[in-house]
Amino acid sequence: MPAVRRVVLLLLVAACSSAEAPEVGPPQPVRGLLGCPNDGVDGVARDDLTCVTYRGVGGVSMGGGSAMRIALENPELFDVAVSLGSPYMDLEYFLITVAEISNGGFCPMEQLLDNLDAIDAKDDPNTWCGPVALDELALPESECSGFSGDYNHHYRGPSAGRGGSFNRVSSLEIVHDFAIAYGNPAFYSSESTYRPPGVPATHHVPLALSASERQAERAARRAEICAEPVVLEGVYDRFYNPEGTFDVITYCDGNGPTNGEYEPGTADFPMEVALAVDYNGNRRRDYGEPVIAQPNEYFEDVGTDGVASADEPGFGPSNPDPNGDDYHWRDNPAGTERNIRFDAGEPYDDFGLDGVDGTGDYGEGNGAFDQSPNVEYAFSRSPRRIVESIDDRMLGRLHLWADAGIRDFLLSAQITNQFWGALRQRTDDTATFRDWDGLAAATQDEGAYDPARADFSEARIGRHGYLWYGDPAVCPGVDAETGRGNHVGTAKEILDRILTTFAFASARWPDGDFASSSGSIREQGSPNGVFEDFALVESFDSDALGREVPYVVVLPPDYYRGENRYPVMYFLHGQGQKATDLLASALLMLGPQMTSDVDDRKARRRADWQKMIIVFADGECQVGECHTGTFYLDHRGAEGEAVRHGEAFFELMRTIDDRYRTKPPAMKPR
Q1: What is the C-alpha separation between 251 and 273, in angstroms, rounded?
Q2: pLDDT tens digits for 103-160?
Q3: Residue 328 to residue 615: CA distance in whole angstroms
């Protein structure tokens, strides 16, 4: 019997328990995989049936935002998507926090010109106007203060719970990686998606020099670039060079003695994607000299009515928003005033990206609002933007989970809030949970939160869930020693967050195998009777990358005892990590599939999770590709280094379906 016909028969059997099964055509492949296009294995939607792929994708930090993007861009291939602590859930809000906080704090041009003798003095109030505060708090109704930082003082918060040092240079390398993946968000050039306009390709440290045996070459190339900055004349900027009077230069940055802070005299890292205004003409960026960015034409974010709230009839202390158009992610996600994006009807200056009339730069005078094509591309790949436009039927078959720490130094909670507001516009079936106590109250009958005991069924918590972790009763500084609510959190928070990913996925696939297994993992019939039979470090030959790509696969406890097929959960790591870093966690994933400590489950010989295949994908940058993380995206490239990491992930999925007994998509009653 042909393979496709066998699959069709399997789908028919699984589709309906009644005697009359619906007619289902041949499966329609998506990216070379069986999926659920238009919520039907054959691409045909049916009102009484829905399609289940038995696949999920989740991740942490870089991997979390990437997992949500991959699932929302390819809803035909997944049922479940999970993002843990990611600042990439809304690239619009992410870039605003970068522009206003991480790239903020510069004094007005006139003030700087009046005090050029102090332009390189650290934190002189005459030439440095930081820090910049973010008014919006992660947790609604919190009495804690917000976060603040600026270009010369990147906010780092307490080291506890941060998940790494994130020193200044490593953070700037992430900025470079973002530009390699999505394009330069600060500038548009018709010659390069990476370099600012006017900067030659020679102003680039080849990524091949990141190889350990070439560190001396890399240092020499960096020193050469820092010693010979590119000097650009006639570059205009609305705020810092409106007459084009001053030269604009490439510059270098570096690690100061305090983590995250720039110290004059420590500039040894070339900022390849940025430009500064050289007010004193010494061909280097001094401490107070501004770093400029030109992502879009200037506009007034007053909403589609074209009127700021203060100018709306009836405005006053008791009526701060007479027209009801002030944006708030939770209270008014449809609002267009102060939503940090241009909406039709808002006033704008049609002066091009530099914001100066008469310079003839990109977009000037064309009668339309313009933003950099690089920014447009990044926003088109943003999870928030995608969730706003995804087809209703396909969104309706996904199950989404997110978390974020309320004191995450990367502002992941503030950013994820914007995504969640967009999701709430599309569906009422969402739930938010305040810290672990709030999650425990919603998912289990008593006691402290335990991801093994928790009930993540849709009947219990609804379709989609979002957890703010971190103690809302304390403010930043109080829990600095433990790291509660930071980017990764305490050791227990890390563990609970990861286990929650798989508990949520397990609860969302129908017809799962929850049968408990007796004996140890070594007694489950594996070839060698060792734990390593269930947690394998493997690789596949990637055509997209032209190299071997590693991955880790965790097989369910009874994999070697029969011919059963299993759902698959893919997990994507964060920047600076690799797939094998997660190998040690495999044992934690097997226990809940084997047994349970919950009395009623034990009585029914039922494990906490259904059996599943777990795959840790690799997003580590290899030499010549990027610095710290791939974003699991096809790169736009720096200088020819446009590597196809997005396609490589789908190659991995095809490899898993070929090598392991994965469960095929099936039609199920709604």
Answers
A1: 10
A2: 999 999 999 999 999 999 999 999 999 999 888 889 988 877 778 999 999 998 888 9
A3: 37
Q: What is the DSSP letter of 362?
A: T
pTM for this predicted structure: 0.95
Spell 36-57 as b/e; 16+ CB within 10 A means b.
bbbbbbbbbebeebbbbbbbbb
Q: Give the three-class secondary structure for 380.
A: helix
**Residue 593: DSSP 8-state:** H
Is the separation of the CB atoms in 306 and 328 below 8 Å? no
What number is the average pLDDT over the span 507-511?
A: 97
The helix (H) or strand (E) run that includes residue 403 is strand 399-405
Structural element, H or E, at residue 670? none
Written as six digits, the tokens of 169 are 């240079």
Angstrom distance (rounded) from CA 280 to CA 288: 11
Tokens of 621: 């940058």
What is the number of residues in the chain?
670
> What does the pLDDT read at residue 20?
56
Tokens of 86: 């990611």
Q: How far is CA 407 from CA 224, 276, 469, in A?
A: 40, 31, 9
Chain position carrying tokens 């605003």: 96
CA triple 612-70-539, angle to 5 deg: 55
**Distance between CA atoms of residues 603 and 598, nearest Å:** 9
pLDDT digits (tens, 9 = 90+) for 318-337: 999 999 999 999 999 999 99
Quick check: 586 and 533 in contact, CB under 8 A?
Answer: no
Q: Judge contact between 173 and 159, C-beta under 8 A.
A: no
Average per-residue pLDDT in the chain?
Answer: 93
Contacts of 66 (CB under 8 A, 6+ apart): 59, 88, 572, 619, 631, 632, 633
Residues 6+ positions from 358 with CB-CB distance below 8 Å? 351, 364
Nearest to 571 by CA among 499, 644, 507, 484: 499
Q: For residues 287 and 549, give the distance between their C-alpha atoms in angstroms, rounded to a whole number.
A: 43
> Ramachandran region of residue 575, left (φ > 0), alpha (ψ -120 to 50) or beta?
beta
For 69-122, give the secondary structure using H, E and C: HHHHHCCCCCCEEEEECCCCCCHHHHHHHHHHHHCCCCCCHHHHHHCHHHCCCC
Is the confidence at residue 519, as pLDDT, over 90?
no
The pLDDT value given to residue 19: 40
